[in-house]
Amino acid sequence: MELVDDSQKKCGGVMNSPLAIFCRPNELSRDSRLSSFLIYLEDVTVVFDGFKALDIDLFGIYYNELRVVIGPNGAGKTTMCDVISGKTRVTSGKLFWQGSEISNAHDIAMSRLGVGRKFQTPSVFDSLTVFENLELALPNRQTDFFRNLWGKTTSDEEEDKIRQMMGRVHLTKQAEVQAQFLSHGQRQCLEISMLVLAEPDLLLVDEPAAGLSDEETGLMAELLLELRGQHSIIVIEHDMDFVRRLDAGVTVLNEGQIMAEGYMEEIQANPEVIEAYLGR
After folding, report:
1. Are 167 and 229 found together in one domain?
2. Is the dihedral of CA 241, 246, 252, 255 positive or negative?
3. Is residue 90 located within the same domain as residue 221?
4. Interval 69-88: pLDDT, tens
């Protein structure tokens, strides 16, 4: 169920709904930010050997919101995802998860809190079948050694979940096919399916449309649109046609800073964004 508070109602409704007006964090009080955002960054910087890779004043993702992050190469998109996933610690500033500060949480802790991440290059188990990959992705499965070692490991309910997921991503016919024999697009769908089955609250998805055919791109957009409302999702993407299909709020990063935020129509009309990114 979607979490809605007064701050979201004042912005025109829940994010991603047809009537929603994009709400920037600076338009909300600090208390509203802490209660409205699943993940919230405040005055966050990341410095590598004197180089400031990230310099974010305010950034937040609502519960069950789909957000797209765009920007030129080197803009800080991956670094921001590294911070959110716990892979990279902040140099200064604070991170909040469901209103509680988690600035020093490492990647394992963030995963346990409910952050799932899909990298640009699909990372699946090539020697396992599609079904076995999804089976391993079930909650607590990778840490439940004895359950994997002896006996039937998957309940009828879990098997139904796996088969439903395979149907959603058009992989039912490939259930017994090893992942190494899947197309790039099928591997992308498999990895996202593995993330979803792990039941995270936040999905970080890096360039899901990269290398996909037109048909696969359409299916990927449909999947992400279907998932919003069930998860918060951050999509890193360069394909502007794909971004338009998602019809979601957009954050533009450039040189580690947020240059603009809004819906795509507003972003496309922003002169600074055109000069720095879209006009290239």
Report:
1. no
2. negative
3. yes
4. 999 888 999 999 999 999 99
Whether residue 104 is found in the same domain as residue 7: yes
SS3 65: coil
Residue where a domain stops, chosen among 134, 164, 199: 199
Are 6 and 94 found together in one domain? yes
Decide the pairing of beta strands 232-236 and 66-70.
parallel
135 and 76: one domain?
no
Q: What is the pTM of this model?
A: 0.86
Tokens at 208, concatenated: 């899901």
The strands making up 249-254's β-sheet, listed across from edge to edge, are: 115-118, 202-206, 232-236, 66-70, 249-254, 257-262
Query: Band of the pLDDT at 120, cuts 50, 70, 90?
Result: low
- Same domain (yes/no): 66, 170: no
- How many structural domains are present in the chain? 2
Nearest to 136 by CA among 193, 184, 181: 193
Q: What percent of the chain has pLDDT over 70?
A: 85
Which two tokens mark 211?
A: 């290398």
Q: What is the largest CA-CA distance in the chain?
A: 62
Domain span at 19: 1-114+203-280
Please give the DSSP secondary-structure letter assigned to residue 274: I
Pairing of strands 249-254, 257-262: antiparallel
Taking alpha carbons only, the member of 182, 189, 144 closest to residue 165 is 189
Phi, psi of 166 (to 5 degrees): -60, -35
Minimal CA–CA distance to 28: which of 46, 45, 51, 5?
Answer: 5
